[in-house]
Amino acid sequence: MKVLVNDQLIERDEAKIDIEDRGYQFGDGVYEVVRMYNGKFFTYEEHIDRLYASAAKIDLVIPYSKPELRAILDSLVTANNVGTGNVYLQVTRGIQSPRNHVIPETPLKAVLTASTSEVPRDMTLFEDGRKAIVEEDVRWLRCDIKSLNLLGNSMAKNKAHQAGALEAILHRDGSVTEGSATNAYMIKDGTLFTHAADNLVLAGITRQVILRVARENGIPVDESGFTLTDLATADEVFISSTTIEVTPIIAIDDKPVGDGKRGPITKQLHTYFTAEILKQCGELAFV
Ligand SMILES: Cc1ncc(COP(=O)(O)O)c(C=O)c1O
After folding, report:
1. Yes or no: is domain 123-281 CATH 3.20.10.10?
2. How far is the CA of 182 from the centre of ligand 1 (A)?
3. Which PROSITE patterns match (predicted)?
4. Which CATH architecture has domain 2-118?
């Protein structure tokens, strides 16, 4: 399998990272995960715009124009012949020796790396849903930046995994923010609730598509958020991300959500979402 290191396509086991790369030492960098269906990118521009926006928020200059980046990512997915899978890319601020918290005034040479994986759609995930746990959100206050600092996210996700759940739904003082690697939603009396796209959550690209198709199809959307008390009496709960689309949450801390099955609005939203994939990427093996 080929990977990208800067603009070079090389074999995976030939890729090397400097021990004083600021991404490695400080988590100083940004990343994206872009989904492909049938060898075609889904919501590519939105992801790349968010990558450049995240980079700008930490004063990191991506050393490629958007068309240049597209050309090198195209060469990667062609080399690996990606069909339905994920493209992971990250840009770190670069190598700084000796290590120093202070960011040098003269910009370092940022380091781009990217890899791909073939990941088919998992229809059982969308239909059967998964369990979640609730965890305190102990992350920093700039969750709008898709940064490489994912220790808080990773620890919460791991706790969920240990409890036999897919995701940890996070809250600050009882107010639900998002999942450890997903956006979180609740449906109550026909209205779709989610946290505002502010500094406490990542403005998910999947979230953006879901809210658009909900509005287009007459489902009321409320972005003022919801509490753990609301969550406990929700009719439906689901989470979303690039890799898991619209995944129902059927139990939280082992208590069933609604009747413990995917709810009708969650199902409808996934149908609308799938239609968007079809529009951009053509017929899917599983619809
Ligand atoms: C913390 C967090 N929130 C939300 C999301 C969902 O974002 P997207 O729909 O763009 O994948 C992710 C995705 O990785 C995430 O890590």
Report:
1. yes
2. 4
3. AA_TRANSFER_CLASS_4 (PS00770)
4. 2-Layer Sandwich (3.30)
